[in-house]
Specification:
- By secondary structure, the protein is mainly alpha-helical.
- The protein has one domain.
- The chain has 8 helices and no strands.
């Protein structure tokens, strides 16, 4: 069998899809984080200065917005820890809530990739990616409002009604169950 070439966008899609699966299985959060940041590295290179979430975050962090600056600093700290050993040997607790946010924003930017690059031949997001975004929005809708937020909000409310009332563990279980039923059933978001 001759190997087929794979685009960097397809690599990012596979990384994000795998990250979603591991996230809902509550496994290997450092690997989830590494996959997300690796995929985001590809996305940022493709859409920086085109209105991606990282552009927004970097722009607001450069102003006098303490919350945005703190988010930017945490972003760089987590990303740096996962790919460098600048400070030598070190240990760190992986902030799962922060990784969940970055996974959401990476998927958001992936979903906008076709429009931002004006190229409809790029791969579409996976069902797991779309469902994760709805799940995240249903559990944490304060993160962002955007032009897509009405569709995300509608899907989130339909797929995950009252999920905010559940414990974090049950929220993850429900997300995993919905993704499993949708991917096995061949449904699309």
């Amino acid at each position: 069998m001759t190997p087929e070439p794979i685009s960097n966008v397809e690599v990012a899609k596979q990384q994000l899809s795998c990250a979603v699966e591991l996230f809902f299985n509550k496994e290997h959060m450092a690997v989830v984080a590494t996959l997300v940041f690796s995929a985001y590295g590809i996305l940022v290179d493709l859409v920086k200065d085109k209105g991606c979430f990282r552009d927004f975050m970097q722009d607001t962090a450069s102003k006098d917005d303490i919350a945005s600056r703190d988010l930017w600093n945490e972003w760089n700290s987590e990303w740096g820890f996962l790919k460098h050993a600048r400070s030598g040997l070190e240990s760190k607790i992986i902030n799962e809530d922060f990784i969940a946010q970055i996974l959401f924003t990476a998927i958001y930017d992936f979903q906008l990739l076709r429009d931002k690059l004006e190229n409809n031949s790029l791969p579409a997001p996976s069902t797991a990616m779309d469902l994760y975004q709805s799940w995240f929005y249903a559990t944490d809708s304060k993160l962002m409002t955007c032009e897509k937020s009405l569709k995300i909000k509608r899907d989130a409310n339909e797929l995950f009604p009252n999920i905010k009332l559940l414990s974090k563990s049950r929220q993850l279980d429900q997300g995993k169950a919905v993704i499993k039923s949708w991917t096995e059933g061949g449904n699309a978001v």
